[in-house]
Amino acid sequence: MTLTAHVTPRADLTPELEAGLRALLIAAYPQFADFWAGTSYWGSEPEWHLWLADPAGVPMAQLGCGRRVAEVSGREVTLVGVGGVATHPAFQHRGVGLRLLRELHTFLRTLPDVEFAFLQCREEVVPFYEQGGFVRVLGAAQYLDPDEGQWVTDAGPTLILPMHAALRDWPPGEMVDLRGTPW
């Protein structure tokens, strides 16, 4: 089946597309169905949704992303945070998720101020993101937890994708201050 890639600014989402993204997230993460029934993102509202559609225009894979200046080891770094990555179960283990990450890379190349893409994930999915070009870096992330309304430190896996900077340009350090909610 041929899937087409789309980048849609959050402000341009139609109610139908928003519903389609929520349905995809529910299918991919049924344990959080109640949450995804009301929204297509957690944390920071994305600037863009990158999604792959089947021939009928139904989202089969998606992610949300947004740009922000964060602080790493006292240095300001322009990131695009990535979150809400999902592939419909019928398309998992068929290369669709990796295609989504390739499309992300292509899109981010059009944003000249972005130094790195950034995400945190569960340990068991690190190899997937590494296959998609992300590199694990040392350090935790500090952010405002959208559920608790307080600042937390997340020591889970932190991965970056160099865009308009080289991997050697990532500041060595132990903390990424996201200066807001995660993606």
Report on this structure.
The structure is a single chain. With 183 residues, the protein is of the alpha+beta class. Strands 1, 2, 3, 4, 5, 6, 7, 8, 9 and 10 form a ten-stranded mixed sheet that branches. The protein starts with a strand and ends in a 6-residue tail after the last strand. A hairpin with a 2-residue loop joins strand 3 (59-72) and strand 4. It has helices spanning 15-28, 33-36, 96-108, 126-131; strands spanning 4-9, 48-53, 59-72, 75-87, 116-120, 135-137, 140-144, 151-154, 158-162, 175-177. The protein is built from four helices and ten strands; from the N terminus they run βααβββαβαβββββ.
Percent helix: 10-25%
pLDDT averaged over residues: 96
Report the structural category. alpha+beta
Shape: globular
Give helix and strand order, one letter per element, not per position: EHHEEEHEHEEEEE
The main β sheet shows up as:
10 strands, mixed
Please work out how many helical segments DSSP would assign. Answer: 4
Return Rg in Å: 16 Å
Kindly report how far apart the N and C termini lie.
30 Å
The proportion of strand residues reads: 25-35%
Low-confidence region ranges: none
In total, the number of strands is 10
